[in-house]
Specification:
The chain has 406 residues and is of the alpha/beta class. The chain has a domain of 151 residues: Alpha-Beta Complex (Aspartate Aminotransferase, domain 1), CATH 3.90.1150.10. The chain has 12 helices and 14 strands. Strand 5, helix 4 and strand 6 form a beta-alpha-beta unit. Helix 1 packs antiparallel against helix 7. The chain binds pyridoxal-5'-phosphate.
Length: 406
Amino acid sequence: MQNRKYERGFITVIYADNAATTKMSDVAIHTMVSVMNETYGNPSSLYRMGQRAKEVLEKAREDVAGLINAEPKEIIFTSGGSEADNQAILSAAEIGRKAGKKHIISSAFEHHAVLHTLKKLEKNGFEVTLLDVHQNGLILPEEVEAAIREDTCLVTIMYANNEIGTIQPITEIGAICRQHHVLFHTDAVQAIGHLPIDVKAQNIDMLSASAHKFHGPKGVGFLYAKKGIRLTNLIEGGAQERGRRAGTENVAGVAAMAAALKESAEKMEANAAVLTQKRNKLISGLQEIPHGALNGDAKNRLPGNVNFCFEGIEGEALLLLLDQKGILASSGSACTSGALDPSHVLLAIGRVHDVAHGSLRLSIGEDITDEEIEEIIRSVKEVVAYLRSFSPIWRDLMAGKKSFIL
Ligand SMILES: *Cc1c(COP(=O)(O)O)cnc(C)c1O
């Protein structure tokens, strides 16, 4: 019960925002606390407790590497997914710049950690091609191939999208990049721990991960960079992380991340089966709401992701009313909610502004019950009907002054 609910006043909540962050697992919390209590030495210190901390760190590196079929030396611990994305892209750009290659390929619906880093590079003389995303939320490998030029130094395409959950053909894109000798980075923050990853079989040169999206702690993640790729430092200082990321290591956080990832990997298949079934039930229930539509491909999506647009309502109002009913959801990514601009992801898949404003993301966790799924469906139906009852846009739609899109 504790995993999904907490008492807040008299209200019990249903947590359906796992794409924003997840609750730490018991094993991750236990690992973190025991490292903080028992192995609090600095891994750079020479006495035994420091060396034990170093061992904890290196064991975590081995575990994490093993889980994605990488070598321990290829793992750099970071403060999370954003830092890993920044370091991967800026490193590839630096390698490209030295070789006279200043063209990068990405997609229009990447996380802002990728898009804003690319913007910065554009200001510094790089050319960026952002591929369009199809209406089903997918990018085709042949479109990536067609965009590759002589001067392309990097392709960066996310594994699974954080808002609409669609899973990209990463293996095929990786193979194309390898064939054309172009570096391939994937932001796998939403995928890792939920989908299988094998960096060798999938031809991935660089990959970003964040612990708090798979029941690990916030503020810790890692960058996988294939042997031989020279990383550019974002933080200068000591020689930690083989000189690629200065600063005393977050030993407890890293150990907890490794424990959480190991557990997620062990339970991946079982969790995916349960989640897919619950997700499909949630989708079917919400599809009964008129003039609404699922965003992103119905099948090729993360097992726990549901994302809808409903015409004639504001996503923010929907969220606030759901919160009052104890249902915690999101209208897009946590980083942009609060902003009144519609989600760049929904615009990228071709939703018009009016429709994109009425979005709802429910990202469920594996311990959600059938009763809770039913409660979500009931509540969303009620709240959408209530909001439409006094929406001027809905009135115009019903009066035929505006035409329905969905
Ligand atoms: C959450 C997320 C990030 C950022 O990770 P942080 O650890 O929060 O910095 C990057 N990319 C995607 C796809 C995400 O979902």
